[in-house]
Amino acid sequence: MGAVLPPADRADWLAITDAPLPVEAATTWVTTPASGAVVTFLGVARDHSVDRPGVHRLAYEAYEEAVVRVFGEIAGAARGRWPELERIALLHRTGDLEVSDAAVVVAVSAPHRPEAFEAARFCIDTLKESAPIWKREDWDGGSDWGLDAQGLRPVDGARA
Fold first, then answer.
1. What is the CA radius of gyration of the chain?
2. CB 103 within 8 Å of CB 124
3. Quick one: which of 148, 152, 114 has its CA closest to 43?
4. Is the Cβ–Cβ distance between 60 and 21 less than 8 Å?
């Protein structure tokens, strides 16, 4: 895996990569002439976790083929709920991340802000609940899988 580039021929940019995430490129790519609203959510590695102060590194692992499929289901479900959406970018990083590195980018464009905000929130919440991505944390007291992991659930309202 390496740098991830936006698609030239689709309205959804769905990717998982071990390279740093192209945050600015994602925001620019979702911006279209018809989009009056662009919402970008950036999830970053933080210096603490549940009962784990001093987190200094995260490592993400993923079932990559399934992640891209699930990302497509999420984008399809968002488009089913908000048909006026322009573009959607769902990008996640794997491998080792230092504190403040971007782990996930969700960017959504729409003609108006309510739909863009709602769709972006739906996308990140559903991604966290549905995509087979796991986080390992290194902190001052040790190293182990994240405590906030939960069972994966299907994407509600998914459509291809």
1. 16
2. no
3. 148
4. no
Q: Which two tokens stand for residue 157?
A: 């309202």
Q: Where are the alpha helices (DSSP H) in the chain?
A: 23-30, 64-81, 113-130
Alpha carbon distances (Å) from 46 to 43, 80, 101, 115, 133: 9, 33, 8, 29, 17
Residue 38 vs residues 4, 34, 58, 74, 124: alpha-carbon distances, Å: 20, 11, 29, 18, 15
**Could you tell me which of 157, 85, 159, 160 has the C-alpha nearest to residue 125?**
157
pLDDT tens, N- to C-terminus, the chain (160 residues)? 556 889 988 899 999 999 999 999 999 999 999 999 999 999 999 888 777 788 888 999 999 999 999 999 999 999 999 999 999 999 999 999 999 999 999 999 999 999 999 999 999 999 999 999 999 888 888 777 765 656 667 787 654 3
